[in-house]
Amino acid sequence: MDKPWLVVEYFVSSRFMWGAALTLWITIVSLFFGILVGLLIALLQESRSRVLNALAVGYLWLFRGTPALFQIIFVFNVLPQFGITLSNFSSGVAALAMNEGAYMAEIVRSGLQAVDRGQRTAARALGMKEWQVMRHVVLPQALRIIIPPTGNQFIGMLKLSALVSAVAVEELLLVANQAASANFRYLEALSAAGIYYLIFTTLFMAAQARIEDWASGKRRRRMRKASLFERMIGATGDGGRVR
Amino acid sequence: MSGARSIVKVCGLSKSFGDLQVLRDVSLDVEQGKTVVVIGPSGSGKSTLLRCLNLLESIDSGTIEFDGQDITHFGRQAFKARRDIGMVFQNFELFAHLTALENIVLAPVRVKGVAKAEAEATARQLLEKVRIPEKADFYPDELSGGQQQRVAIARALAMKPKMMLYDEPTSALDPEMIKEVLDVIQDLSRDGMTSVVVTHEMAFARRVADRVVFMESGHVVDDAPTSEFFHGTSSERAKRFLDQILQH
């Protein structure tokens, strides 16, 4: 690295900052909608209707069975033929959110199933309607189980967001790539981008610990918390995954 | 005893789970203010009967009337009637994410629309009644089984039910905690709460029940006033069951 200051130069340049901000924004928006989609699919899976179950299974089959990159390119290039034209950004976010939904559904569902059936029975016996049982008894308990793996999804999504560079959204990776291809300073440009990614993931993990504390309510934590480092290297058991 | 109004009338109730018929032509009357204890070997249909009374199970045939209303079929009226029936489960089923007080307050506030402050005041009175006022802010996993079950009773009472159903309320408890729960149930019974109790506690049945119902293989075999049931007029099958139970 004969021009180490170039890393700093890139890092503080407005292009990189915007790219990083866009990466963060893509991550947040995609994950937000991904969670909503996941909740919906999980509820479809849990419903008693065979048709709705089948719908959910079809969705999972489609979105877990194809690469995320394929889905992004498909939404951007193929949907316009059917009259659905989305901007580059929207295509990327829509595809990521739908993809994420397929994975969140599994997480949400395992959370819902982890809540003992007797809890629902007791809530019904108190005269609660089905949605009240869900809202006041099942979801709050499921949330505690759902939140830790969702934190991992956030980090996964941050990394996955780089894929939308394929449809020319100027997020962090594309910005770095463009900067590098102008002068072949790949090491410096990618290092600057890499530092942003690492800062974000580190901050997420710290935030995740806070959220887990919050989700566990007022109660004392009896278990030892995983350290930030353990979280980062995925030593907490449910680590990252490859798509 | 005669002339009291029946609050529950079950007529010809049958229920199957797939090929397994768990209730066969069951009829049962519970009079207002009385306590009926249902006994019988496991698998005899006692718990299913209770669950049917509270609409937690659909039934195949027969009718259930509660407080003058036909609640046989699930519907708005039936579900409204359910608010007037309190139920206590073998495994307590306190909501794990809520404190004792929050457990008690939840349904009155969400289902009946009672103001929160009022519901909390009532909840504290109820905790007093079940003799654990000091545990209001504890989570279920910080309470002993006996304490959890008493909170569960308070939670059911908070809906001001006209009848209480107890499904083996002491079966999951350590022996030293059984008494504290039974004492609470007995107090409520003595105060005139209509109750149906499924239990294996024979001493409790003798002491508290107005009537004893003995079930076997989905049938009601005996249905008699407590003193008659325990003093000879019960069926041979019931006697055999009692002998087995009382031997240990």
Radius of gyration of chain A: 21 Å
Task: Identify the strand order in the major beta sheet of chain B.
Answer: 6-7-8-3-9-10
Instruction: Kindly report the average pLDDT value of chain A.
Output: 86
**What's the structural domain tally of chain B?**
1
Strand-residue proportion of chain B: 25-35%
CATH architecture of chain A: Orthogonal Bundle
CATH architecture term of chain B? 3-Layer(aba) Sandwich
What is the name of the CATH superfamily of chain A? MetI-like
The CA-CA distance between the termini of chain A, in Å, is 32 Å
* Name of the CATH superfamily of chain B: P-loop containing nucleotide triphosphate hydrolases
Q: Major sheet of chain A: size, sense and barrel closure?
A: none
Sheet having the most strands of chain B: 6 strands, mixed
Taken from the alpha-carbon principal axes, the silhouette of chain A is flat
Low-confidence stretches of chain B: none
Which segments of chain A are poorly predicted (pLDDT under 50) over 5 or more consecutive residues?
218-224, 236-243
Number of helices of chain B: 9
List descriptors.
heterodimer; A: 243 residues; mainly alpha; MetI-like fold; 10 helices; 74% helix; flat; disordered C terminus; B: 248 residues; alpha/beta; Rossmann fold; 6-stranded mixed β-sheet; 4-stranded antiparallel β-sheet; 9 helices
